[in-house]
User: Which sequence fits this backbone?
C-alpha cells in the first residue's frame, strides 16, 4: 500500500519555494553556460540563444541577478556598455548542470523512444 501524500509537501515556507533553478528552466542553464568563461554583453548572449526573445532574456537575467547568481555592470560610456558576470553562487551550479547533461547524454535514446511511442499512441487516438 502506498503512503498518502503529505498535504504540506509544497508548504509556502518550504525552502524549495525560493530555489532559483527549476528543472526545465532552459534559459537559466543556457545563460550560465554562456557566462562560464567570463563576462558577456546582452548581444553576445543572444547569438547562441537565438530561440529566446529579448524580453524573456532580460527577465531571465534580472531574475538571476536578483537571486545573486550574476552581477550586472554598467560602464559609464556612450553608448552605455552593460556586462553580465557570474558570481561564485552562480558558478556553484556547474556541478548540478554537468550532472543533468550527463544524465541526458546517457538517457537520450530512451527519452527519444518514449516520445516517439507517445506520439504514435496520440496519433492513433486523434
Assistant:
Amino acid at each position: 500500500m502506498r503512503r498518502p501524500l503529505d498535504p504540506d509537501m509544497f508548504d509556502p515556507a518550504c525552502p524549495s519555494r525560493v530555489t532559483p533553478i527549476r528543472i526545465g528552466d532552459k534559459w537559466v542553464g543556457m545563460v550560465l553556460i554562456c557566462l562560464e568563461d567570463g563576462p558577456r554583453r546582452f548581444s553576445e548572449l543572444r547569438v547562441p540563444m537565438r530561440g529566446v526573445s529579448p524580453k524573456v532574456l532580460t527577465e531571465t537575467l534580472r531574475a538571476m541577478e536578483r537571486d545573486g547568481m550574476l552581477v550586472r555592470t554598467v560602464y559609464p560610456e556612450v553608448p552605455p556598455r552593460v556586462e553580465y558576470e557570474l558570481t561564485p553562487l552562480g558558478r556553484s551550479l556547474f556541478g548540478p548542470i554537468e550532472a543533468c547533461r550527463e544524465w541526458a547524454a546517457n538517457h537520450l535514446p530512451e527519452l527519444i523512444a518514449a516520445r516517439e511511442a507517445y506520439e504514435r499512441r496520440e496519433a492513433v487516438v486523434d
